[in-house]
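quick one
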Amino acid sequence: MVTARPDSCFLAACRNEPHDVTPVWFMRQAGRSLPEYREVRGEGSINDAIANPDLATEITMQPIRRYGVDAAILYSDIVTPAHAIGFGLDVVPGIGPVVEEPFRSSDDLHRLRPLDPEADTPYVLETIDNLVAELDIPLIGFAGAPFTVASYLVEGAPSRTYHNTKVMMKARPDLWFALTDRLADLAIASLQSQVDHGAEAIQLFDSWAGSLSAADYEKYAMPSSAKVLEAIEATGVPRIHFGVGTGELLGLMADAGADVVGVDWRIPLAEARTRVPEGTALQGNLDPAILGAPWEVVEREVDAVLDSNGGHPGHIFNLGHGVTPTTEPEKLEKVVERVHQFRA
Ligand code: CP3
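structure w/ coproporphyrinogen III:
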């Protein structure tokens, strides 16, 4: 596969091809810690901001202008498709997705009708059209993996234990697989439309998959994620597969059909590389909490990540999870500079 943008270090790294500088971008780079985000964001639900293409375009562009990162990530959310088909959820500031009537029985399946992206989320596609015209770096499209989106729909609110989700998985596997299969179809339709409109890579966020054992991940979460990743393979764009606390799952997450596997800070990149098939690129893995330390400390930790990668071409520098709201933008600016200066 020839990259659409031969000059992109990000796309080259996704494909494990040699390139000059280590690419870098940050999960949750759009929003949260940026004062210019808070200025334009306004009050109210993030769903309203996402539904405003001019605003969503501006918010996606803000970190690009400030940091000089090598990829943009669409300003949207993993629950946007479920919201758009009327499942009945809101994203509460400081809390996250909250569902009025959680998914509990087969009577709830009809609330997850198929997504028609052009009709249900035209604003997302208009935002992508705007961005593709404006950007000179690749745009990353994304979706939530079925397990992680299901955890919100079943719990009704962010959870630390995933109690109801795990009970449904084990006690009602028929219902669980019906639910995650519908969520896989939502993700496929959304990702396909994002790529059709010009997203040059996609990331499947399975943020909470690390709450599962490897055996349970393989049985209950991997099949629906593999369905999504395999469907997107035909588009030819690189597929990044990310979760938190997934050290024991990295091999399975690669096998699900990923070109790039996201790694959090719990294991070094050198170790992560032994857990995925050869040819799989890695993304990560600076601990976002470190960004609160003085620059000398951050610099040392950035260098440790780069050293652990050992000059391998398949590395995209990122945090192990998203930028936290208190992060000073100046720190991220310096991280980008440092990563770009680095020569193995
Ligand atoms: O910058 C980017 O990463 C692009 C936009 C983006 C958002 N959410 C915007 C957002 C992306 C890629 C996401 C993905 C997402 N959403 C994930 C997976 C990534 C991860 O961090 O694990 C998850 C689990 C969600 C669900 C969700 N939405 C949560 C947990 C929250 C946080 C609530 C809070 O306020 O702390 C949200 C809200 C949200 N999504 C915000 C942003 C910028 C912050 C709140 C706001 O501005 O309204």
